[in-house]
Write a structure and sequence with these properties.
The chain has no helices and 15 strands. It is mostly beta strands and 228 residues long. The chain has a domain of 100 residues: Jelly Rolls, CATH 2.60.120. Strands 3, 5, 8, 10, 13 and 14 form a six-stranded antiparallel beta sheet that branches.
Length: 228
């Protein structure tokens, strides 16, 4: 069993380490299995990066003006959430990078005071852009879907602080090529059984896939992200 607990953690965000059609990596055994540590991610938080931002006029917010250094705590990123303080619609756009330093962008349709979960696993944020919505405010936070280092097709086991628990739910990779602003995470994402609370260390074992599509795109790092 390959063990990904000691993967390199110096991954500069300005230098993309995405490998097109990656078919082999020492972290993944020949059969495709690997064990991942997600660390101890914090609980999903609605205003982790942007809190009560007025959207009465169209605008944007750069990472330097966001909370918590605009950096996601989970090692391979996680999904974002957006919610308004009241009724309103429109489409926001988030730009940033994944854990490999690969530029990425995603849009989401606002749904008033009902939280909307984005799908892609951001590691670093660069910019949030919004349209004219009205006399309400906007929060941007982190969700519960954890990003993965490689394209996963199956989850086998999960551990909470080294104690076995039931395996969580894997959202398999979106194979759409080319990716778009609205497609899903190209490596898939994971909803752990363990409650995320900033204390519990989550580890899990997955089956990873290195297949490519008819154009030769894909591999362990998945289809390239779309970026504005």
């Amino acid at each position: 069993m390959a063990n990904l607990l000691n993967m390199p953690n110096f991954l500069p965000r300005r230098l993309s380490q995405y490998v097109p059609a990656l078919t082999y990596c020492a972290d993944v055994q020949l059969g495709g299995d690997g064990r991942i540590s997600f660390g101890a991610p914090i609980v999903a938080t609605a205003a982790q990066f942007v809190s009560a931002q007025s959207v009465a006029a169209a605008g944007s917010l750069q990472a330097s003006a966001m909370l918590n250094s605009a950096t996601i705590d989970a090692p391979f990123g996680r999904n974002l959430t957006v919610v308004l303080s009241g009724a309103g619609t429109g489409t926001i756009t988030v730009d940033g990078w994944d854990y490999l330093g690969q530029p990425m962008s995603e849009t989401a349709a606002l749904n008033g005071a009902t939280p909307v979960a984005l799908k892609k696993a951001f590691k670093y944020l660069r910019q949030l852009t919004w349209p004219v919505v009205g006399a309400v405010t906007l929060n941007l936070g982190v969700g519960s879907q954890l990003g993965l280092p490689y394209k996963a097709i199956k989850v086998w086991t999960e551990e909470n602080n080294s104690a076995p628990v039931a395996a969580g739910t894997l959202t398999i990779a979106d194979l759409t090529n080319p990716a778009t602003l609205t497609t899903g995470e190209p490596r898939g994402s994971y909803l752990a059984t363990t409650a995320l609370n900033g204390v519990a260390v989550v580890t899990a074992t997955f089956a990873f896939a290195n297949d490519v599509d008819a154009t030769g795109a894909g591999g362990l790092h998945g289809i390239p992200h779309f970026s504005n």
